[in-house]
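pipeline: protein-struct stage 2 | run 1193 | Ferredoxin--nitrite reductase
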Amino acid sequence: MPTDVERWKSEVYGNEIREHLLEFAEQGWDTIPEDERDAWFERFKWWGLYHQRNGQESYFMMRIGTPNGVLTPGQTEVVAEVADEYARGPAENPIFGNGYVDWTTRQSIQLHWIKLEDIPEIFDKLESVGLSTQQACGDSWRNIVGCPVAGKDKHEHVDALPVAMELNETFKGNDDHSNLPRKWKVSVTGCREGCGQGDINDLALEPATKEIDGEETKGFNIRIGGGLSRNEPRLARDIDVFVTPEQAPEVSGAISALFRENGDRDNRYNARIKFLMDEWGAEKFRDVLQEEYVDFELETAGDDLRSEYSYNSGYADGGHSDHVGIHEQADGNYYVGLDVLVGRMGVDDTKELARVADEYGSGEIRITQRQNVIITDVPEEKLDALQDEDLLDHYSPDPHPFMRGSIACTGTEFCSLSIVETKNRQVRYARWLKENVELPAGVEDFHIHLSGCTASCAQPQIADISLRGMKTRKDGEPVEALDIGLGGGLGENPNFAEWVTQRVPVDEVPGAIKNLLANFEERREGDETFREFVARTDEEELAELVEPEETSYEDPMMHNTKRTWYPYADDDSLDASPAPTRADGTPITSDD
């Protein structure tokens, strides 16, 4: 039997959701029938809206798609204005205040505390500068990711930006590809670092060359079925297909159609294309694609250009590979990558980012998959003045490794799936580690990813240290806890972290990291990287080296934040929630 979600989608889905969404916005939150809310909330995702969690009824997270992470001149300023006017809630975050922008691991933007009644005005503001929430969520083509400096990078093998943009133009809002069995994540990579992270995407176009008609042709090899979610991570698999940039949209559409018609619609857990690849294998997948979905002869795979991949690898040699810092572009100008700790930037800082980008560069901003931002097109003579700006004191182009390597998902602050608080905690972890732990000699990159649950939005399986939300008991009391994994990374030889220690109380995690790094330094052979050390050490020994320990670090959120309406409210009990509210913030009582 089809799932509830498939039944809901069969009734209303795709572009037609917008009309209903705007009607509900005009009539108010409380006009959504209570017994239909699950169905409408699932449909609203297609237009970039996730309903927030218990205690935050009537509030939504809004995701804005920015293909390949590109914000053109003027767009960042409008995002900041929307956040300022519409993304302030009934409580304040103690670190980030009230009103902020989240840069995500898929080069998108998230805003919180959005009211349904404000959607029409928000859509108008975003669309006036070419931004959209369309298909930022839902069972469709998600935001297309790639190298954040595509078209600017001196070292790229092929300029993948036109391909990413054409895929976005072709498949966003395309009725034939609007209702897939599950979400569809696409990466287009042309750079030597591999920062498109194709290995963890459903469809990955990876740089390659092939001799065609006697000429060496630049293009892409295709891989299928990568992903991190839940407990079933997969690396994308080669299907022995090479496409030119001109062929990429047609073949990508064919693969999307194959998934549309063959993906599992009876079991959402098994609906991702990675499970179809498990069932069919690469050879059958290619055969079906050729015989039923493509009307020209597919080229076999070309020469792979992945050998230099270093992004998120733990193996970077001779410099950083995350695009943070000051780098020369192909045209002689420079781009400046800024470290945004856990990807969150206040409204005022986001406005400053727009101003600084306009004053010193072209006004363009690029978002990376490490939750950072890049100012592009800065002339050399303006670099010194740019570095003197106050904004760069807070978002450094030369951050400490613990700051540089920190990623966190939304967590229980807003997410109904998360088990623990994440963003504030990872900020505190990074600051404590910076002050109390000295990294071993030569370790300039160290990635710590904190994900609030197994959904893997913070991409924990590809970090040096992977943290995943759990619960445990300490001194007889229930407390938030984290599983600890080690040695994940992408790059030339990608692999996932080994989960070596379970359910460590959150206040003992910094001590565990400190002890682990000390043990690594003591047992390290030569100048091997942390990932190399993990790879040659068996899992049982690694578990012994973690050594959880209470330290001077104090965690303010040991209690079960999933059982609160907002973890940082003075009274955070569910009974104290002010929600649901109208657009102006006044409560909606049961009598209404």
